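hey so i finaly got around to running the thing on Thioredoxin domain-containing protein from Duganella violaceipulchra. pasting the sequence first so u can double check i didnt mess up the copy paste, my clipboard has been acting weird all day
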Amino acid sequence: MSKHCDIRPARPLRNRSAWLAAALLTLPQAGVAHAAARIESFDTGSWQRLQKDLPRPSVVVFSTTDCGHCPGTIAALAAQLQQQAPQQPKVPLVVVVMDGDGQPELLQEPHYRAADRLFVFRGQGTALQYSVHPGWRGMTPYVALLPHEGAVELVLGRPSAQALERWLQPGRQP
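ok and heres what it spat out for the 3d tokens, dont ask me to read them lol
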């Protein structure tokens, strides 16, 4: 019995390679109409500025590069925000990568491409956590919902679709 197996493709490999290359080049852009154009710096004073400067409502996701739940959370939030009624103003999705300093390739990651703005934190992680909320212990994803008006709602993990829908309603009751 031979240990060598001779398997030949049904079609020339060249055609498959061209198709695969085209698919891989376009796939990361599929469904992403608003990818962040650059990586912005985030420091311990940035959170206070963002709360004042971002349009309301806005969603901010604090993430880390090793967070297993963050890509799904970012994708789910982006999808739900894109489903908003056309007459409603677009709700920005902002992502802050707590350990992304010095990693320009983050812009190529499909889940970060869903963000309207992408920040990386420069500094000590515990200082960032404290500047956002003194009780936050650094678990991610940590989602900040900046409502039309009123106080920011902080959620550990992905908010439910129903909770996000209620939060998006103007004049909602807290």
